[in-house]
Amino acid sequence: MKNIALVVGATGITGSNLAEKLIEKGWMTYGLARNPNANLKGLIPVAADLLNPEDLAEKLAQISPTHVFFTSWLRNDTEAENIRVNGTMVRNLLNTLSEKRSVQHVALVTGLKHYLGPFEEYAKAGTLPETPVREEHPRLNLENFYYAQEDEIYAASERDGFTWSIHRPHSVVGKAVGNLMNMGTTIAVYASICKETGRPFHFPGSAEQWNGLSDVTDARVLAEQMIWAAITPKAHNEAFNVTNGDIFRWKWLWKQIAEWFGIEPVGFDGVIHSLEKEMATDADLWKKLAAEYNLKESEINRLASAWHTDLDLGRPMEVMTDMSKSRKLGFTVYQDTRDSFFDLFQKLRNENLIP
């Protein structure tokens, strides 16, 4: 039977890159979102509300996927609400698909908050794991919507008999507009503003992040791992970290990024320069730049997620991710992190999203 993919969250960084890879590999690919992207050739858009079981049942009535890739989440004011809402979205979807008996595998994307704690307790003393983080690290004794999403999948797998895989990327680098967690594009917007205004291109994070070792995840690498795990029996019913495969220090990479934009870098100077504060009044400035350069997106908040970049770069520890588990099972995709950022910047410029 032909592989039929349902990509949930197909407009985000992870979902859009995954859909593109699946289509390249010949999969019939449906992209589910509240406002799905109809611009990707070969993608069959599905507009549906994951919090509305009746709407899901109607929109998926004629769709029987063999593989489900869940990349979606909604941010709420508290972690308790994150758990309720995001757990419900997974449960509603799998309940809707249950009667079809078509699903063979479900893949879920979470992230390093599995190890570092949820937004409310993120990377705080007393919860910090040893690094590099490894998949066998136990769950923290904290409420975490990632755990709730996992538990929904485990329960549905027991009921319906499909296999599953969990994918835990570090900060994901890739192109998307309107995404809630978008470090690469946030840095690109910040660098563009610094270049246009002459403002200093401050590293926004902590001393530990500036000096320590780190890694990131190219969205294309994450997509490849998700597809690999879906079709590789020995990778079924496992959780996997996923990063580019190299490591770096931000004190090195910040200079590389500054050079790409033709600006001078300013390293850690003893103070955390929060991007949320640095860019707090830049909405009108970005609209002016969008008009001047005829940019496609004039709303800065559709491109930049300064709050989340602050969360990652402000951590009081270095963070690396161990990739041994999937490597031993045969996943060997590698990506140079400089190229992840530079490819993204060039794509953003080519598509007229930054000056």
TrEMBL record:
Domain PRISE-like Rossmann-fold: 56-355
Official protein name in the record: Nucleoside-diphosphate-sugar epimerase
One Pfam family recorded for the sequence: PRISE
Gene3D superfamilies, A to Z: NAD(P)-binding Rossmann-like Domain
